[in-house]
Amino acid sequence: MLNVQEQTIAGINMKYILQNNDDIQRLSYGSDPYGSVPYGSITEVFTICSWITSKGGWNAITAYDIMLLVDAYLELINLGYTVRMQDINGTIAYYLDILDSGNDFTGCSFT
Question: Does pTM surpass 0.85?
Answer without folding.
Answer: no
